[in-house]
Fold each of these.
Amino acid sequence: MPKVAVVILNFNGKRFLERFLPGVIAHSHDTAEIIVADNASSDDSVSFLEKKYPDVRLIQNAKNDGFSTGYNLALKQVEADYYILLNSDIEVTPNWIKPLIDLMESDPLIAACQPKIRSLEQPERFEYAGAGGGFIDKFGYPFCRGRLFLHLEEDLGQYDDDLEVFWASGACMFVRADLYHQHGGLDDSFFAHMEEIDFCWRMKNQGFKIMYSGKSTVFHIGGGTLPKKSSRKTYLNFRNNLSLLYKNLPQKQLFRVIFLRLILDGVASLKFLFEAGFADFFAVMRAHLHFYRKLPQLRKKRSNIHPHPVNRVYQKNIVFEHFVLKKKCFTSLNPKDFS
């Protein structure tokens, strides 16, 4: 068995550690080292861990610089063959690690993998952040098997397979440690949201695969760091989506896709405005201003990535398919439209 480290990034999440860490220990201690990386929490997370779980390794980051930097700093201090990036608000199940490690061991081209992620609040349904594996459409809109926008499918065993996907969820992502460090880990500038999609896309640009395995299941609350409806979340999602597109799109698609996204984002901002979502409207505007300011840095990052066409991209507009054509489930999408 290779050396595996489960690393939980915590920020003011004592309530989640109290609830979910016992299960992680019970179902992981015999196959993995368990580590909590604390992002300078202001609650008593650290004292709680030191008193209640002295055998759990604790890494303390000096300040909260977000999901990406928090993990990058912590993982520099962890020696393992595989890292499991695990949200603090996830409930794991028996034998949740071995099926994914076995899958990754079977193919050295697999850079990252995720299990089936279901909702803890609605256990029969998939959860928003990852569900049955992540995909992206040709305009950069992410979606999942089992989750198209806010529509969550019931788990009826339709995604119990192993499948190559486009991205693996950062809520529970298995990743090869050597590749993580060789390729710069998560992008620090993302802070939070879509950093795992950017990482997986960079891995695909290097010829690696991203996988999903339905042989393991975890349950996720979601919204533990930011509420599901948050202008801060809107800002980060729009900002980071533009950044990952600019960094990773093939040259022939770059200008066309970015131009169309500027138009589509403008439409989205007007929709926010008409629905009295003033904070979300300004969040989209701020996201675009940030993108323009950061273009020099993004060009430099792009030059180091060498983007080229990759597979598992949905060649239609998922927004149109879902909201206009009323396609609610992943199975209603034509498999021939994924290249």
Amino acid sequence: MKTALLTGSTGGLGQKVVQILAEDGWNLILLNRDSNQAGKQLVELTETYPNQSFDSFIADMLDLEELAQTAKKIASVHPRITALFNIAGLLTDKRIVSAQAIEGHFAVNAVAPYLLISTLRQQLRAGATQDTPSFIINFSTSAVNSVKTLEVEKLVNPEKIGGLLDAYAKTKTVLNVMTEFIKSELYSEHVYIYAVDPGPTKTQMTDGNGGMPWFIRLLVPIMFGDADKQAKKLMDALHKAISNQKSGIFISEGKVKDNPAIALDREVQSEVKGLLDHLIAPAQNTAMR
């Protein structure tokens, strides 16, 4: 049986991706912050799909030690994972700092996904079969196309937040950079990785969020697609990429697009990898004790 782990599964696009996978017969592991919403989702899935397996874990993506401990529990209970969907994200115009003193956008949007990938590598390798790879999907955004430079040393504590076109876009760009620097070694383990931009979508994140520029908020009712439609388009494109044995690509609004130039910069890739490895090491060490 195919097993997928999804973060941020209780709302917006995450909820729609869960529905698509459940209808396709997947067993699901759900990782969320809100235990009440997660509990309701677990009950609904169990009642609707009684012949499939569903499991729920609670962790705050803003606390790397808590996340590492939870990832270790997931690994012990689920030795084979076919897919990892890093969907959970943060968009705000306020300065939020993680338990490890990392700016919130960077912690949730980039460091947490990298921690999960690193911690669950063995399970993802085991989830692959001779005919079908395991795969990782990092939810990025079209806003990465606005990022021309990336001051890696300032990601942990940026001078300003700025919302969608600043901290959010820069930390999502890290996911595209990550896809580039890790794709080859993952491919050798029969694990594919993708950065995906679902396109402008009507979700709780885009509804009245102060991190969204005012001119973009005006466009939400007329130019942003429903989550159902965007999720289906994304999943269709993903299935096509996997069947064509393509990995390490950027899928934007259902089409394969060029990664932003900054993601192809080898020096930036090296700096980002070094920073991410440095930030997740203490949490992983604590989880191993």
Amino acid sequence: MNRTEIAQIIFDNLNSNKEVLKAQFLKSKETIGYFFIDNLLPEDLALDIHKKFPTTKEAVKKKNLREFKFTAYQMDSYHPFLEEVIYAFQDKRVIQLVSEICELEEVYGDEYLYAGGLSLMKKDSYLNPHLDNSHDKDRNRWRVLNLLYYVTPNWKLENGGNLEIWQKGLQQKQTTLESRFNRLVVMTTHQNSWHSVSKVVKEGVRCCVSNYYFSSTPILTSDTFHVTTFRGRSTEKVKDFFLRLDNVLRSNIRSVFKKGVRENPHQYKK
């Protein structure tokens, strides 16, 4: 199947559940708006996506104080079907429908997959609480939506690797959204949208197709530019101190160099 055909399936499924998804989103809109839908694609198609995922050895390893994960974004280096899947979510019909569900206007996809693409997490992988970078790669548009499509068969809640949304701040209990097979999660991104991924505690690899949408205007009128900003959990006092320091240093660099000292390599260079 090509991206247009896959996009049609995504569109039809979202559209047939539009009112339910919109009601789900509106319940959380005032904090971190989100919705999720299970069985997004036919099961055999979702299984085929997983089967064609690269291995962690073929992906880019990111391991530091902030995170431990693997990413793949130079899509012509992997099975061509995966590029079709990625760009199905960038189809204008899908973008328009998702933006309507989330009551947003002027929403755009990202052909460069800046910070998007494929994500893999194996045992001991994690992602500390963080705010996504506020802008696209050229700092022309605001990042407003994060789309996460999970494709690992039989992935269970107790495996870890689940999305955590901190709707009431980092000192309050988080909302956990299971990284269930064939589930799409859509969440807003702004200066209060703290989220994380719990540590993977079982053997296996949790696979996710990741996309971002952007807009000419931010979700919150109070939003300001920020780099990807990490924090420690409430039990990680020392780690939190160093992550705060790291945030300040990287923010100061970006205040001088608009695109950083070097171009962020996490983008699809065609």
Amino acid sequence: MTRRQTASIVFVVLCVVLVAAAVTLNIGWILVNGRRVAPLILGVFSFSLIIAGIIVYTVFLVREMGITEQQDSFLSSVTHELKTPIASIRLYLETLQAREVGDAQRKEFYRIMLQDADRLQHTVEQVLKAGAARQRSKLHEVAPVDLAWLVHECVDTARMRHNLPPEAVSIVDVDPQTPLVVDGDVDDLRAAIANLLDNAVKYSGGRPQVTVQAAGPAPDTVWVRVKDAGVGIPRAQLNRIFNRFYRFQTGGFKVKGTGLGLYIVRSIAKRHGGRVFAESSGEGKGATFTLELPRSKSDPGARSPAPGARQAV
């Protein structure tokens, strides 16, 4: 148990004691002034305000302590995500500077340094996108985006970034020749799908088994669904996982990250007039994330739903 958790418990207990004391005094006041209407009403009203104030103050204080703890955890995670690739790149550069290495080993060093640079860039982009998500509530530039094409691009990128074979992240029933068009920002939508894929891979454990599907389940709706067979999510956590800085950690399975990925996905979905939600049967049973967006009126397929699109993955 952390110091902040202990402090939260102390404040909650203190709140209960103060409320109990205020209620006792209130009852005593009623008994003493039972026949005097004006002091009775004034006393009951005053004590009610005191009790309400104590409760509101305690809830606010505990909530702020929780936010502060999440921010501290975020800073620690970001520091780790920044320091680790920098230290790795520095080590390989010092090795190349200090001694002669063969061509094969030099190419391997370059490959690892490029991977570390990509990891560093990804962390910086996540922080920048999270900051932009809080400031931007509307889209400034809107253009038609084909989600079927974008899903294939994001899956290829995820396989390459995580060094995964094609079967680890598979695409189900997504025909790149059948467009699923939405009106939006292609960079935002690419970031949303990429974050869902990264999250699925990270929480899949040793052997990722991720499936991706894009479909038009209704004439005015398009969704991208990412399903993994990983650690799963307790039902009580399904809504909280989209909060900023929040990271679900199951027993014995720790995941590195900033706690911003799903928050960014939710912000992008809202900005596009859509939503994102998670489904899971519990820990150890995998999870399914669905990004649902309004379909573009310019999409030829918007008039009728795609065949078989209502079937869940």
